[in-house]
């Protein structure tokens, strides 16, 4: 149990940290227009869920339930602003499953690329590289070990 | 005189015969009779048909309906006679078996594309798509299976492919300074032009609004794509890809501006013309020997001018496919394989060691086969003995480019989205014939979990392509090996089939130069970044089908013309060649066509099913009256569409500023500097429309031609009190049609009167007179009625008022509306008057009303400005 509490603490801390992070100002000037590129994805299996801020929270719960039922394991990925949501989702899942799920949490930083498109003839394309934090939570059921019985 | 009494006098009458007759006099008196007689002899008055006049032993009963039973000399006249009598002689449709014979089928195909052009994938499309005739082509509009949403999903999750070979490529070569200077006259001088630093080295493709020479901003033609050649000499080539709707205007403008003259002398040093003649000759020879091939007589017109510039119209010399969606890269990397090209030195050392012994025999056979083909299509150019790539990749520089391109291609495998490539990047490749790498079954290519480094900038040399060389292009096109030859190869191997295609030696496969162009997709409001991102492929002509099938077998979904419009609508991006802006010529042509079509459809309906637009207060239901609208608002005749990105984005931020401040997400990227700029300083010329997007707040879908109006203060108050309020309702207006209805009633009464018994008596007394009078009256009445009806029918088409045509003030029209899957709401794209946008900014609201042409209900919408 202590272990779990630690994990929750870690998640909560991470949330706060992320919220406190001041957003870096993007470099813009009159010569360029900023356009973001899509970040690279690691892999996309069926039970890899990339969470966004637009989709309804309950829909994600439904999807997670489905995959937990099918493949017994779900990996949630969140980037930047969605980290908060991913954490909430994982904790909520754990709660509604009465703590029969466990979480495996990993954090990483991901390279993001912005293109600066020129507006004027003399300017050329520029690139703005930045890092953003990401979280990957593997949600899996705990195998409840049956008590040993001596056959008699 | 004889004894017999003969005539009048002798019988006691008064007439007396003369003693002698003057022959001349007699003859002249009978002249007219003689003439009539000879005429009737020469032109016998026929009452019988030709077959009825045949002698009895030659008559057959079937003659009347089968012309072939007539004697041959009479057949033509017989047929014409039958035609006159209104009974066209029926010719039986030949049997399917006969029609399907390759020769007959080919004749039929050639007949059908005589006055319009077919794309190379036409037959494939024609079997599954609704084909329409447009811009001189026969193009696929939409698929016959119900797939509108499926195609949207393909763009979002999978891969959608379209054949856009109908774009025409115009090549201009010349000194670079001259070219950029002249072409600059055709663009907006304040923004990116043809000679921009980012485009000039040929690493990226550009998209621009093309204007008439010095025509900014009033005379736009349309959006075009262009790419420069990679070489860095002082003389450079540019490819301008023009949509067929704009082709004529664009070409005319370029020719006038550059003073180009058509080169008539075909014996110039240029090889293209010579080659084309060869092709024509070949084709003639082929038809003589009845060999199967669809006619493709592509003539390449060449224009030159005094400044050493040359314009070549590469119409139908290049094919272009457009793939969009996240699985594009996987599809492409699956379908195409790059050859292992080594320098000549290496090849000399390692020749014949590499060839697998098991397949050695087969290779020899293959080579023989291909040799035969080569002999058949013997080329007189320098590539006649060697294949083009052997010569091309001899030079160290080209080999280096190949290595760069090869690395780049291998790097593509690990990317998930085409939008992860640098925007508008051009990547040239030389690939092997895709027919040797077909899967046995249609298999979807999926993204793989390889992790590669993202490509930040397009690498040097990645864009250098042999496709720019007309000799290479012609060689590749001419030496196309038909699929049957490859199938023969497969059947000759020990274990026949497609399974061992991978074991064939590379030398027997053709190498085809192609070009990839990245398309970045949209970037609006952080909203689903890069929707519609994809890749365009440029192929040499003749190779469409093998590439097409290779991509289809990787489960790319196929879209038609409808899809290119729907992608632009969902994005929403008006700055594409597929969408014509109201100030362009292409728009006028299309709009007038649509108007006629809609009016015809309107009057085909029975009168009780027709919408009474006058009652609804819609003054122009089938046409957007832009010029009238601008005249009513600004009192000017000419107008243009505001396209200055800077101004549009400041306008948008101004409008967004007026939104509620709770929604911080929207403000995230607003540049605060922009907001403080005074608009009056920025925009001097206010006679223009602004491209906008309206998003329905509650219910409703804006449709085409629906009007955009300003809400009254009451409306805004009501809406602010109750956010679910659906919107005001237009009051019913008086219809002009009422009077005609009244008239109908009157005439009915009159008719009843005419039938009454007292009238009948009168009629009996003086029938003729009354009838005459009645007829006269009827004629006049009918005349009046017809005039009224035509007036009414025309009134729908000629519109006098727009701005105050209904209860709310009209500020613009929706040109493309419907349900957007991206927004999950009804949205409409359209244009509004600029001064009305200022009013909105002053009042700090972005709420407008839209009303469809068929309803009285105004719907509440939010306005956004597109840039």
From TrEMBL, chain A:
Membrane spanning stretches: none
SUPFAM superfamilies linked to this entry: AlbA-like (SSF82704)
Localization annotation: Cytoplasmic granule; Nucleus, Nucleolus
Cellular component, GO annotation: nucleolar ribonuclease P complex; ribonuclease MRP complex
Molecular function in Gene Ontology: nucleic acid binding
Record-level GO BP terms: rRNA processing; tRNA 5'-leader removal
Keywords: Cytoplasm, Nucleus, rRNA processing, tRNA processing
Quaternary structure (record): Component of nuclear RNase P and RNase MRP complexes. RNase P consists of a catalytic RNA moiety and 10 different protein chains; POP1, POP4, POP5, POP7, RPP14, RPP21, RPP25, RPP30, RPP38 and RPP40. Within the RNase P complex, POP1, POP7 and RPP25 form the 'finger' subcomplex, POP5, RPP14, RPP40 and homodimeric RPP30 form the 'palm' subcomplex, and RPP21, POP4 and RPP38 form the 'wrist' subcomplex. All subunits of the RNase P complex interact with the catalytic RNA. Several subunits of RNase P are also part of the RNase MRP complex.
Its job: Component of ribonuclease P, a ribonucleoprotein complex that generates mature tRNA molecules by cleaving their 5'-ends. Also a component of the MRP ribonuclease complex, which cleaves pre-rRNA sequences.
Family to which this protein belongs: Belongs to the histone-like Alba family.
Listed name of the protein: Ribonuclease P protein subunit p20
The species this protein was found in: Ceratosolen solmsi marchali
TrEMBL record, chain B:
Superkingdom of origin organism: Eukaryota
GO cellular component: nucleolar ribonuclease P complex; ribonuclease MRP complex
Entry keyword annotation includes DNA repair: no
Comp. bias (Basic residues): 66-76, 741-754
UniProt keywords, alphabetically: Nucleus, tRNA processing
Domain Pop1 N-terminal as annotated: residue spans: 28-99, 107-174
Subcellular localization: Nucleus
Location of the region described as Disordered in the Swiss-Prot/TrEMBL record: 66-96, 734-754
Domain POP1 C-terminal: start-end pairs: 688-866
Residues forming coiled coils: none
Record-annotated POPLD domain positions: 534-626
Main location: nucleus
Name used for this protein in its record: Ribonucleases P/MRP protein subunit POP1
Organism: Ceratosolen solmsi marchali
């Amino acid at each position: 149990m202590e272990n779990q509490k630690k994990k929750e603490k870690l998640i909560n801390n991470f949330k706060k940290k992320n919220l406190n992070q001041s957003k870096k100002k993007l470099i813009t000037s009159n010569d360029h227009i900023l356009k973001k590129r899509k970040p690279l994805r690691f892999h996309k299996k069926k039970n890899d869920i990339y969470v966004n801020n637009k989709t309804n929270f309950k829909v994600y719960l439904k999807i997670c339930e489905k995959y937990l039922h099918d493949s017994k394991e779900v990996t949630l990925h969140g980037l930047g602003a969605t980290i908060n949501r991913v954490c909430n989702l994982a904790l909520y899942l754990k709660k509604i499953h009465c703590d029969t799920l466990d979480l495996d949490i990993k954090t990483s930083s991901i390279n993001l690329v912005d293109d600066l498109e020129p507006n004027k003839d003399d300017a050329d394309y520029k690139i703005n590289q930045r890092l953003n934090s990401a979280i990957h939570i593997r949600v899996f059921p705990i195998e409840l070990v049956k008590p040993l019985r001596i056959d008699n | 005189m004889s004894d017999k009494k003969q005539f009048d006098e002798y019988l006691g009458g008064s007439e007396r015969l003369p003693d002698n007759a003057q022959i001349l006099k007699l003859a002249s008196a009978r002249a007219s009779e003689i003439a009539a007689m000879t005429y009737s002899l020469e032109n016998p008055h026929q009452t019988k048909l030709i077959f009825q006049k045949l002698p009895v032993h030659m008559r057959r009963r079937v003659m009347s309906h089968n012309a072939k039973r007539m004697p041959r000399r009479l057949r033509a006249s017989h047929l014409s006679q039958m035609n006159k009598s209104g009974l066209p002689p029926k010719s039986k449709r030949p049997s399917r078996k006969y029609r399907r014979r390759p020769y007959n089928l080919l004749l039929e195909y050639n007949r059908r594309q005589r006055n319009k052009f077919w794309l190379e994938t036409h037959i494939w499309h024609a079997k599954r798509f609704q084909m329409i005739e447009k811009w001189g082509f026969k193009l696929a509009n939409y698929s016959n299976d119900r797939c509108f949403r499926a195609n949207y999903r393909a763009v979002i999750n999978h891969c959608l492919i379209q054949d856009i070979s109908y774009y025409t490529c115009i090549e201009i070569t010349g000194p670079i300074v001259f070219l950029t200077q002249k072409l600059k006259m055709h663009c907006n001088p304040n923004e990116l032009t043809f000679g921009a630093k980012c485009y000039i080295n040929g690493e990226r493709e550009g998209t621009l609004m093309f204007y008439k020479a010095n025509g900014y901003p009033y005379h736009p033609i349309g959006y075009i794509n262009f790419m420069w050649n990679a070489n860095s000499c002082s003389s450079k080539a540019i490819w301008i890809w023009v949509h067929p709707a704009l082709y004529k205007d664009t070409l005319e403008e370029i020719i006038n501006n550059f003073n180009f003259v058509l080169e008539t002398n075909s014996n110039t040093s240029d090889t293209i013309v010579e080659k084309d003649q060869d092709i024509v000759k070949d084709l003639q020879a082929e038809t003589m020997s009845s060999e199967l091939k669809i006619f493709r007589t592509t003539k390449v017109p060449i224009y030159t001018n005094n400044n050493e510039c040359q314009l070549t119209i590469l119409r139908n010399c290049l094919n272009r496919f457009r793939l969009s969606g996240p699985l594009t890269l996987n599809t492409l990397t699956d379908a195409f394989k790059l050859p292992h090209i080594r320098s000549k030195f290496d090849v000399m050392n390692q020749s014949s060691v590499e060839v697998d012994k098991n397949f050695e025999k087969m290779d020899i056979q293959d080579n023989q086969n291909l040799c035969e083909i080569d002999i058949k299509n013997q080329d007189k150019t320098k590539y006649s003995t060697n294949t083009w790539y052997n010569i091309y990749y001899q030079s160290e520089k080209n080999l280096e480019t190949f290595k760069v391109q090869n690395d780049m291609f291998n790097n593509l495998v690990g990317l998930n989205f085409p939008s992860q490539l640098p925007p508008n990047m051009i990547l040239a490749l030389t690939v092997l014939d895709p027919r040797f790498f077909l899967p046995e079954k249609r298999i979807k290519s999926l993204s793989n979990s390889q992790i590669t480094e993202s490509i930040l900038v397009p690498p040097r040399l990645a864009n250098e392509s042999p496709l720019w060389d007309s000799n290479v292009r012609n060689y590749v096109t001419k030496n196309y090996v038909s699929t049957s030859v490859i199938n023969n190869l497969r059947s000759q191997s020990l274990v026949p089939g497609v399974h061992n295609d991978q074991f064939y030696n590379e030398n027997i496969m053709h190498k085809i130069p192609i070009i990839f162009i990245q398309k970045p997709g949209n970037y609006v409001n952080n909203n689903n970044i890069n929707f519609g991102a994809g890749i365009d492929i440029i192929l040499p002509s003749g190779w469409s089908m093998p590439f097409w099938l290779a991509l289809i077998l990787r489960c790319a979904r196929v879209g038609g013309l409808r899809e290119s419009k729907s992608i632009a609508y969902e994005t929403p991006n008006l700055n594409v060649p597929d969408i014509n802006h109201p100030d362009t010529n292409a728009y006028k042509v299309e709009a007038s066509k649509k108007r006629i079509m809609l009016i015809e459809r309107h009057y085909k309906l029975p009168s009780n099913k027709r919408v009474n637009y006058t009652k609804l207060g819609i003054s122009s239901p089938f046409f957007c009256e832009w010029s009238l609208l601008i005249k009513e608002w600004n009192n000017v005749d000419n107008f243009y569409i505001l396209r200055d990105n800077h101004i549009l984005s400041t306008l948008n931020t101004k409008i967004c500023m007026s939104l509620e401040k709770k929604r911080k997400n929207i403000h995230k990227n607003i540049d605060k500097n922009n907001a403080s700029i005074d608009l009056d300083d920025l925009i001097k010329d206010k006679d223009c429309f602004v491209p906008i997007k309206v998003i329905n707040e509650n219910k409703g879908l804006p449709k085409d031609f629906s009007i955009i109006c300003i809400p009254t203060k009451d409306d805004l108050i009501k809406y602010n009190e109750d956010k679910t309020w659906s919107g005001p309702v237009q009051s019913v207006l008086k219809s002009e049609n009422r009077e005609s209805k009244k008239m109908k009633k009157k005439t009915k009464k009159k008719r009843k009167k005419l039938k009454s018994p007292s009238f009948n008596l009168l009629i009996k007394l003086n029938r003729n007179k009354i009838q005459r009078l009645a007829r006269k009256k009827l004629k006049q009445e009918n005349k009046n009625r017809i005039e009224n009806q035509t007036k009414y029918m025309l009134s729908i088409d000629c519109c006098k008022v727009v701005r105050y045509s209904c209860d709310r003030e009209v500020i613009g029209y929706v040109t493309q509306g419907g349900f957007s899957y991206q927004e999950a709401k009804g949205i409409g794209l359209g244009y509004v008057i600029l001064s009305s946008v200022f009013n909105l900014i002053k009042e700090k609201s972005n709420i407008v009303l839209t009303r469809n042409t068929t309803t009285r209900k105004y719907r509440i919408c939010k306005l956004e400005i597109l840039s």
